[in-house]
Amino acid sequence: MPYGERPDRLLDGERDRPLDVAVIVGSTREGRIGADVARWFMERAAKRDELNLDVIDLADYPDFPASYPATPTGPMTRFTARIARADAFVIVTPEYNRSFPASLKQAIDYAYDEWHAKPVGYVAYGFDSRGLYAVEHLRCVFTELHAMSLRDSVGLHLVGESPGPSGSSADGDERSVTALLDQLVWWGLALREARARRPYTS
To answer: Which of 127, 68, 120 is nearest to 95 (CA)?
Structure first.
């Protein structure tokens, strides 16, 4: 197809469809609050008509192999297929020892092409850093995977500031969610249309 030619047959059906957003809960640790954080975020994101949201909780994949096999297992294949269908992602992650959990890195590494040319937003939680270090490490990983990290992220303080998941969300947390969702919609629609015009090649 000549550069710049518009394949309306592909774009017309895509333009009106809500963005398929996979919200990935990255922690599998016993006693985690990741599911609560994801629920708090989903309550706000669900108000956006442009989004079709689906939670992927890595705790629901107990059969992921402990070591990377030569042939993908059934759970690995199901996970990567869901990543392939998504138009955009929101990663819900704690900060463990100034980074993100190994369970999340393992899952991310199961896919490669499936992440390409799609936006990724971050909802992180921790203590004084509000998960900043985890987000910065994830930005490096998703850059390598040819994904588009959103500029703004949501960072929740879990001690002493009544963060959103504890039931008393600060105004700053709400503004952060709004900024993330605005960017997710813009980049999600733009990149979906771009992929329809011309498949991404790395």
So the answer is: 127
Q: Residue 18: which of 193, 189, 194 has the closest Cα?
A: 189
How far apart, in Å, do the first and last CA atoms of the chain sit?
19
In angstroms, rounded to a whole number, what is the distance separating the alpha carbons of residues 126 and 94? 6
Cα dist. 122→5, 65, 82 in Å? 34, 26, 18
Amino acid of residue 66:
A
Helix (H) or strand (E) holding 32: none
Q: Grade residue 16 by pLDDT with cuts at 50, 70 and 90.
A: confident
What burial class does residue 197 get, using C-beta atoms within 10 Å of its C-beta: 0-12 exposed, 13-18 middle, 19+ buried? middle
User: Is the model's pLDDT at 97 over the cut of 80?
Assistant: yes
> Rounded distance, CA 38 to CA 35, Å?
5
Q: Which residues on neighbouring strands pair with residue 125, listed in sequence order?
A: 94, 156
- C-alpha span between 120 and 161 (Å, rounded): 27
Whether the CB-CB separation of 166 and 142 falls below 8 Å is answered with no
Three-state DSSP class for residue 81: helix
Among 26, 202, 3, 10, CA closest to 114: 202
DSSP 85-108: H-SEEEEEEE-BTTB--HHHHHHH
Q: Copy the structure tokens of residue 182.
A: 């605005």
pTM of the model: 0.89
201 against 42, higher pLDDT: 42
